[in-house]
Amino acid sequence: MKRDAFKNLSNFPNEQTAFSLALLRDGILNDILDDDADDILYYAGKEIARQFFARTLDDIQDFFAIAGWGDIEISSQKPDRENWTLTGEAIKIRNAAIEKPSFFLEAGFLAQDIQQQTHRRTECSYQIEDKNKVIFTVYID
Fold first, then answer.
1. Do the Cβ atoms of 132 and 87 come closer than 8 Å?
2. Model pLDDT for residues 96-113, shown as the tens digit of each residue
3. Which CATH code is given to the segment(s) 2-7+16-140?
4. DSSP label at residue 126
5. Which InterPro entries match (predicted)?
6. Spatial distance between the Cα atoms of 13 and 15, rounded to a whole number of angstroms
7. I need a labelling partner for 31 at 20 to 30 A (CA). Which of 14, 21, 76, 104 fits?
């Protein structure tokens, strides 16, 4: 049911701005969730992946674009690890507006989605490479 709702929502132009996304995610949610923000956002990302399972690389890329999370591509793939690169205007704006923006929501999504694709346990970490790029590493057991 929720996946169908996602498909319906994806037919509308994306009116979400990077600023409003940064305001909610890096401002208000961090204030409300305080010290638990990173963990909660990570598990929220996993829950999003359960509800909107992206079965292919193209599906993951489409989901990130529609969600306003940026442009993502796989940069390397090994049996026990995948590296993903996230770029785009949303990343530039969040890095410019916030001293340390959180990308745990995206990390949780990638971890869960790759786990569902591979049927193997996963974890995901990230590193802000520069003001224009975030590198995610998905570790696969």
1. yes
2. 878 888 999 999 999 999
3. 3.30.1380.20
4. E
5. DUF2507, NO_sig/Golgi_transp_ligand-bd
6. 6
7. 14
